[in-house]
Amino acid sequence: MAKLTPFGVELRKQRLDKDLRLLDLAEKLGQSAAFVSAIETGRKQIPDGYLHKISKAMELNADDTRRLRAAAEKTRKEVRVDNLRGDQRELVAAFARKLDDVPNDLMEALKKIVLKSIAGDVPFFRRRRGIIVPPMSTEKLRRFAEKIRDVFVENDQVEFPIMDVLEFKLSKILPDFFIDVETEEIMGSDEGRVFAGSNSIVFREDVYVGACRGNRRDRFTACHEFAHFLMHRDVKLARAREDSDKIYVDSEWQADEFAGTLMMSPRHLEMFSNADAAASACNMNPAAARVMWAKYEKEGRFAMT
Q: Who has greater pLDDT, 274 or 4?
């Protein structure tokens, strides 16, 4: 799984101190968000002249530049794993021996402990089943999402600012957390990933950029992966849900229910005349908003408002 290098830690600190998202810094540098993320995590070496570009783009003072340069020198002395395949690189921290020696069946089992969103999957109607996780009822998921809202936003804020939370606010509670951005070539159909035991959420670049710019489906994906990070990243080796298993032990079902509640809070239902009005106010994709509206109706929540 990806990990910030000493240079990445220092750059990220200085970037967040200046309220710059990965996307903001990437645009200042004329680079992609995936490129900047790859530098921070060490998937790419620090290019010649990069420090000068960073210093200029971020308008760093002499002390900040010296700290960044020292972190860069420390990073260059570390052993990197850039020559490994993408899937091996994500798992390298889990082993103290060469990945080539890991039995194929164990490697495949480990790869299954990747909680991810896949292109084409429709929230609440996903083709792919999740892995078995500890059971959580709908009511418990609703309450948990509401508690998370209380941590990050004021009670009267309707739209949940998921990318601001992930970029700036979550690290104040979990200092080791960071966003990682990968190219479509690396991610393929995966729009987001959370690896067991990781301190990060990985987004495909187009999804990350879309979520930052307010794309409603991409915002839902970000909330969905946030759910996996909060609830499922400590999962052990597990199997996929089967027909005989209850839906409330499915990691994907849990993440969708959490994401839907986080985006359309029950506390605000009285403000909306219908599902489409809720979608607009919550900056949520209409199809997901209609599903949540129907769920709230079935739960009798409109009678409570």
A: 274
What is the percent of the chain where pLDDT is above 90? 62
Which residues partner with 115 through β-bridges?
194
DSSP conformational letter for 180 = E
| Residues 6 or more apart in contact with residue 226 via CB below 8 angstroms | 162, 165, 166, 201, 258, 259, 262
CATH topology of domain 6-76: 434 Repressor (Amino-terminal Domain) (1.10.260)
CA 180 to chain centre: 8
Q: Which of 224, 254, 115, 253 is nearest to 160 (CA)?
A: 224
Q: Residues 254-266, buried b or exposed e (16+ Cβ, 10 A)?
A: bbbbbbbbbbbbb
Q: Find out whether 208 and 23 touch, Cβ atoms under 8 Å.
A: yes
CB 69 within 8 A of CB 51: yes
- The whole-number pLDDT of residue 156 equals 94
Pairing of strands 200-204, 178-182: parallel
> Would you tell me how many other CB atoms lie within 10 Å of the CB of residue 133?
23
Residue 278 has pLDDT above 90, yes or no: yes
Is the pLDDT at 113 greater than 80? The verdict is no
| Bridge partners for 192 per DSSP | 117, 203
List the Cα angle 286/32/20 in 5-degree steps.
75
Residues in contact with 173: Cβ distance below 8 Å, sequence separation at least 6, in sequence order: 151
- Please state the pTM of the whole predicted model: 0.82
Task: Tell me what pLDDT residue 112 has.
Answer: 47
CA gap 239, 223 in Å, rounded:
24
Backbone region of residue 21 per phi and psi (left: phi > 0; alpha: psi in -120 to 50; beta: other values): beta
Residue 257 near residue 226, CB atoms below 8 Å: no
Q: Domain locations in the chain?
A: 6-76, 112-298
Beta strands in the chain (DSSP E): 114-118, 178-182, 190-195, 200-204
